[in-house]
């Protein structure tokens, strides 16, 4: 009896805190907030890891309708979906919605990254990142990226009979980020950064219970290690800027952000904002690109059941890449103009993104009471939206389970805010063009130098991003007389 009383006295204040702001109005969306703290978080995470999250959400839709309430990661939440929901999320100004990630994401990435900033703060940081990642700037880095891919293939692919695609693509994309975005040389520091980064990523969508030996606790410790290392990089690059050793302020992202000045020649981005956004760019650039390329490898595999379905895709994609490879002197690096010719290959990548979007969904916070679709979303509540809900809508993409790159031949035919692997509107991911270049360069070298077959089933889970459960092992054969 005493134990029950003590537990009750502990839970009641927490429940009142979590439900603070709930209205008694019948216009609040239908659904249940579940038990305090836990809510529906474990149900969602289990469904994601079993690759049944979309089914779980469809069951909610069938039960409650197009908008419903639940509790995720310790906060009352409203789930919305569809084209109009996407537009609402991506176009609402900061007086309506604010960026608000889950507690675990905010603790790991920081509260001054783009996912959290609004208004002029958001614009200032986004402009600095965009200056480095815009197409005109990236043209200069195609050759460097090509060199990184060549080194990677020589080290990890050539002479091998079997490889695991996913861990190799994670290694490649991390090395590209370290070299191009942050100017971090190969060596012990980069290897330690990789270890910390992988540990941090595992706790991105976890229940924020900071007890020893929990996934969340391990991720927090890894994040602290990364922050200390990034602070050291900032000190080194600031010193070089002061000594005029860095002749090009845009030589890497950290230097570019340090070089951002206002009309009075004062730094416009704080050191914490640089650290938080460096970690954000590492996370976004590493996982999204590596997952896209991994699923491209899976879809282009010479495994019979896949090959029969996408024979035409293979023919066009391989022909396009081999034509470019055969037109170049052996060993010559790819150019921006050659990437522009890879139109069909990028359509294949877009269709891969439609079917396997790296980002499952996201969160916003209601800054005030919001009227939406006939219901009230109370101030302070989370809003949860999901990418796949429009990507697999057969009224938008006919036969959504069919792999068909021709969907993207005419981009105008796709309604706005329906294809959103990189977000939309003013919240469009600034790394979109970087990911496109990285993907095209990597696929060019793989399809012109190797053929491959799957060695395991293609089952994947979301944790929180889609990953083949066995790392996508493939058997590879190097093509003779490679000219690239």
UniProtKB/TrEMBL annotation:
UniProt cross-references to SUPFAM superfamilies, sorted A to Z: Cytochrome P450 (SSF48264)
Binding site for heme: 429
Membrane topology classification: Single-pass membrane protein
Keywords: Heme, Iron, Membrane, Metal-binding, Monooxygenase, Oxidoreductase, Signal, Transmembrane, Transmembrane helix
Signal peptide start and end residues: 1-21
Record flagged with keyword Heme: yes
Domain of life: Eukaryota
Family matches, as InterPro entries: Cyt_P450, Cyt_P450_CS, Cyt_P450_E_grp-I, Cyt_P450_sf
Family from the record: Belongs to the cytochrome P450 family.
Chief place where the protein resides: membrane
Cofactor list: heme
Species for this entry: Dovyalis caffra
GO biological process, one term: sterol metabolic process
Subcellular location: Membrane
Protein name: Cytochrome P450
GO cellular component, one term: membrane
GO molecular function: heme binding; iron ion binding; monooxygenase activity; oxidoreductase activity, acting on paired donors, with incorporation or reduction of molecular oxygen
């Amino acid at each position: 009896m005493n134990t029950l009383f003590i537990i009750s006295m502990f839970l009641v204040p927490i429940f009142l805190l979590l439900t603070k702001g709930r209205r008694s109005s019948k216009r609040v969306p239908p659904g249940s907030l579940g038990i305090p703290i836990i809510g529906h978080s474990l149900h969602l995470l289990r469904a994601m890891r079993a690759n049944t999250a979309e089914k779980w959400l469809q069951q909610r839709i069938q039960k409650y309708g197009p908008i419903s309430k639940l509790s995720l990661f310790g906060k009352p939440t409203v789930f919305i979906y569809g084209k109009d929901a996407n537009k609402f999320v991506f176009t609402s100004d900061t007086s309506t919605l604010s960026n608000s990630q889950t507690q675990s994401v905010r603790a790991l990435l920081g509260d001054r990254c783009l996912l959290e900033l609004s208004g002029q703060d958001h614009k200032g940081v986004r402009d600095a990142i965009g200056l480095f990642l815009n197409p005109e700037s990236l043209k200069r880095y195609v050759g460097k990226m090509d060199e990184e891919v060549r080194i990677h293939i020589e080290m990890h692919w050539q002479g091998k009979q079997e490889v695991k695609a996913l861990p190799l693509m994670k290694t490649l994309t991390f090395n590209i980020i370290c070299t191009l975005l942050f100017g971090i040389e190969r060596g012990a520091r980069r290897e330690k950064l990789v270890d910390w980064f992988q540990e941090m990523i595992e706790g991105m969508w976890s229940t924020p219970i900071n007890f020893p030996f929990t996934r969340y606790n391990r991720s927090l410790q890894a994040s602290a290690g990364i922050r200390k290392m990034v602070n050291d990089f900032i000190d080194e690059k600031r010193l070089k800027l002061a000594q005029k050793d860095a002749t090009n302020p845009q030589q890497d992202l950290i230097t570019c952000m340090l070089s951002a000045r206002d009309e009075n020649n004062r730094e416009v981005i704080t050191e914490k904002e640089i650290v938080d956004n460096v970690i954000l760019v590492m996370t976004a650039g590493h996982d999204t690109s590596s997952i896209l390329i991994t699923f491209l490898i899976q879809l282009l595999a010479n495994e019979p059941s896949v090959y029969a379905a996408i024979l035409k895709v293979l023919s066009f994609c391989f022909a396009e890449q081999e034509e470019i490879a055969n037109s170049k002197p052996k060993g010559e690096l790819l150019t921006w103009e050659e990437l522009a010719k890879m139109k069909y290959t990028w359509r294949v990548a877009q269709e891969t993104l439609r079917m396997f979007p790296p980002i499952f969904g996201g969160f916003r916070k209601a800054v005030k009471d919001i009227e939406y679709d006939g219901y009230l979303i109370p101030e302070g509540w989370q809003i949860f939206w999901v990418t796949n809900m429009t990507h697999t809508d057969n009224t938008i993409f006919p036969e959504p389970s069919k792999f068909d790159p021709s969907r993207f031949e005419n981009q105008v035919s796709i309604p706005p805010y329906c294809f959103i692997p990189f977000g939309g509107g003013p919240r469009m991911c600034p790394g979109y063009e970087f990911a496109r270049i990285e993907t095209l360069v990597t696929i060019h070298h793989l399809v012109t130098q190797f053929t491959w077959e799957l060695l395991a089933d293609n089952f994947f889970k979301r944790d929180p991003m889609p990953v083949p459960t066995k790392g996508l092992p493939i058997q590879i054969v190097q093509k003779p007389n490679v000219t690239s």
